Amino acid sequence: MTDSILYSVILLALLGTVAALVLYVVSKKFYVYEDPLIATVEEMLPGANCAGCGSPGCRSFAEKLVGSDDISDLFCPVGGNQVMNLVAGALGKVVKEQDPTVAVIRCQGSCEVRPKTTEYQGPRSCAISALIYSGETDCQFGCLGDGDCVEVCKFDAMYMDETTGLPVVITDKCTSCGMCVEACPRNIIEMRPKHKRDLKIFVGCLNEEKGGIAKKACSVACIGCSKCFDICPKDAITMNNNLAYIDPEFCTLCRKCVDVCPTDSIIETNFPPRKNRNTDPGITIKVEPVKPQNDA
Amino acid sequence: MLRTFPKGGIHPPENKLTSSKPIKRLPPPNVVYVPISQHIGIPAEIVVDRKDKVEVGQVIAKSGGFVSSNIHAPVAGTVTKLDMIIDTRGYKQQCIVIRTDQKNESNFQDADLPLIAEISLEPEEILRRISDFGIVGLGGATFPSHVKLNIKKDRKLDCLIINGVECEPYLTADHRLMLEKGEEIMVGIRILMHALHVERAIIGIENNKRDAIENFKKLAAGDPGIQIAALKVKYPQGGEKQLVRALLKREVPKNGLPLDVGVVVHNVGTIFAIYQAVQHNRPLMERVVTVTGKKLGDPSNFWVKIGTPISELIEAVGGIPEDTRKIVSGGPMMGKALKSMDVPVTKGTSGILVISEDEASRGTPKNCIRCGECVDVCPMGLEPHLLMNLSEKGMYEKAAQEDIMTCIECGSCSYVCPSHRPLLDYIRFGKTIAKQLESNKG
Q1: Which of B13, B57, B64, B66 is nearest to B34 (CA)?
Q2: Fewest CB atoms less than 10 Å from the CB: which of A286, B191, B235, B419?
Q3: Which residue of chain B is at minimal alpha-carbon distance from A208?
Q4: Hey, which CATH number is domain A36-91, 3.90.79.10, 1.10.15.40, 2.40.50.100, 1.10.10.10?
């Protein structure tokens, strides 16, 4: 009786020792050195694995950061400057500060201003309907409204507005990973600098048709009249194919272009409501109703 | 037992409303819109300018490369502008706008030219004319014909197949052409046999066109090289690969061409255009278009000048009926619903189909019940339900392994699906992405 217990204990002890020896030898022989910094850096990164930086995931981005000498052109859009500075501190390398960007939808073609002229019955996916035809409205450049961008957003930063049929970006949640930019077959979504208090001015239209045709398809279309181009004091606006584009690098957010746009196709966001200084009677200024604030 | 292809296929209601109606000539419209990309391949390059006077048949856009085609003025008149015009997909593309000179008699000259049966030209000259006169495949694919006929010496070619199948429901353009221009088509076939040095030609016609079969049998009597084959009525028999399989029992390899099994296939409409180009020096400027629909006042077949707006065709059959839901360019199976009636007739427009409310709507998609109907009917032996799922989930490489690229987009799977799943939409999408991936790799 005691024998059998003794034998099995000895046998198991032997087996364990042999296995431990084998494991020890193998782990020494095939040891792969990994820079402990990689794990440290990965820990610092947001861990969203969104691929917004260009690497397939946070791990490979960390490897890239540790591996390359010059990391000034690498940037994690989700973590922003804060995370990048942290990483730079840990690695002793230099990073370039980048303005945080946010996705903007360059189309205002809601059902009201851009009437539907046809009806689409196929699968509700922008990629498929763009392949088949130019969309339910007469504008072949604008939003198709099937929500491929919302589908790919990993941060719940977008939703489809049911009344307008257009996607909306929740600026606070947007990490500017760029998935929506890639998903949009019409190239409507652009990453623009967020500025302070999320002030942005951009042309909310991509219609390259001549003025009359564009206006007929959508009443807030850019008609390529060049009024904004003429008034811009910083030459930030370029005109191409009957379409204005505001270069965020030069724009100083003076809002002069917004005032002169005859079709309201230039969008301004989060600006304080301006005083009704109606200098030119031909110009209408959009004034949002102001909520009375309690001075308590 | 009539011949047909063995795998898959469906038999939708034929609805050939216009098969007994002779082809009428539509007077040239006041303005024609001639798109510069009416064929597969590189768009043609415009060689006229605003305010230029053009004659009937003058080259207005030159072929932009080997796989491209010349485009000729369908009417005599003045080029008013070079503009953009909406195409069948709803996107704008470049076109030449010509105002017709209604006093010029050449605009009213018709295709009923006297028959010239004697073939006097050398093969090289024949091929040159086919290329110069802008002949493209008129069955719908609009592949430039001279590319198909430019066969390297080392390729074995023993049979010419003439596609008179017209398996799409509703369409009767080829059927009427075979009845009315049978003699010309026979000459056209002989021209091609001469040019390609082949001894054998087979005209494949579905058995629902008995009169066309009889007509050709009469015309081909005494010519042992040309056979007439009656085929069982089955869609999509007009597909090249299906037709070659049905007539010769030869399997065209996947991703291959009929030439790989020694065959060249041409549509009867193309043959007629070739006849006119070679024997009469007449470029491709007009074609037969079936304008049809159950609710239309007078569905008809027309000789239509390329560039005629579709609204004029609809006007000619008595306007749009009350409850019209869709206007389709092409047949009901493979045609495209149009976004606007400003779309002009191009070389590939075989029919205009006006569909009413009750015929048009696509059912709401439900879950796949794994019934296997789509697998049964797929003429290419694919598994449409699998391909759809793969491309819906973004597994394009797997889809490519499952031969998504061999799909001929006939739409049989979507037609039979009891759950109304949009199979073809997804497969077509998957094909596009798979093609992109392939070209990125290579």
Answers
A1: B57
A2: A286
A3: B92
A4: 1.10.15.40
